[in-house]
Amino acid sequence: MYVEGWNAHRVVRPSRLANAVIERLLLRILDGEFQPGGDLPPEAALAQEFAVSRTILREALKALEEKRVLRIRHGRGTTVRPKGDWNILDPLVLSVLLEYGGSATLATELHEVRTALHLLMADLAAQRIKPEQRDRLDSAIVQMRACMPSDTFPGDVFGYREAAHHFGRTLADASCNEVARCVVETIEVPAPDASLGDELAAMVKTQEFAERLYARIVRGTELGGGIESPVARENASASEGSASDGSASDGSASDGSASESEAAGSRSPAAVGLSLPTQPNQSPLLPQPLRRPAGTEARPTMVGAGSGTRSLL
Predict the structure, then answer these.
(1) Could you tell me if residue 208 is inside a domain?
(2) According to the UniProt entry, which residue ranges have a biased composition of type Low complexity (predicted)?
(3) Predicted TM-score of the model (pTM)
(4) Do the domain assignments include residue 241?
(5) How far is CA 267 from its chain centroid?
(6) Is the dihedral of CA 167, 169, 174, 178 positive or negative?
């Protein structure tokens, strides 16, 4: 498994100056100045052009090699690798690709992956959520609803952002899946500066999806354990044969199901003063925007197929 910045000896974290060189090299590769399969200029020429020491330049080149953007062959020069080889989940590579790579497809693919992972985390949370996490989730969804615009209230964008952040964090914690959480936090899509109207539209989209996730968790816990993950489903399938032999214990199993149902009922939305949407719509989930490199202009980023509005979770 590839882990960014890791080799057998040490973890490499480029310095701030090296990161600036990395960004500039990536932009020039994306602009076509340095083509895949072609060689970069000699180190001395690049160091002079970027006005950095050769130590800083080598640090940047080494980092780009570890991000699978470059291939360094000692004594034979440095070659640009095909874009398909790049580690696009590296935060720096991803942000540059999204803002300057001109690919709407990548943004859409990230859109789809984040949505699928949030749905998976909701299914896992339905099985694993703890009482204190459920309390936090209830509180977050109530705060999100309270910040939504209405006929008599213009809406609270900043309050909504904070509540949505707490909702997303609690969902991730309740899923007890660190891999899903880390991937969701890694794949961030930059968004251009938004007007108030854009922010309010994003709130509506976010709320639709948050309500869907919340309903998924609540209904799952009311069923006594939520919707099974693929692994749990596979384990259950493997044990179906032995389970079918236990028909004699149906009475005790029914009693257990009844007690589970009663416990879940005490945590139902009505019991805590909450409501579920009657027709929750699927809505893509996007992350918080990233900051652009200083001194650069943003290019419009398409955030999803047929969608001009981002989500705030």
Answers:
(1) yes
(2) 236-266, 274-293
(3) 0.64
(4) no
(5) 28
(6) positive
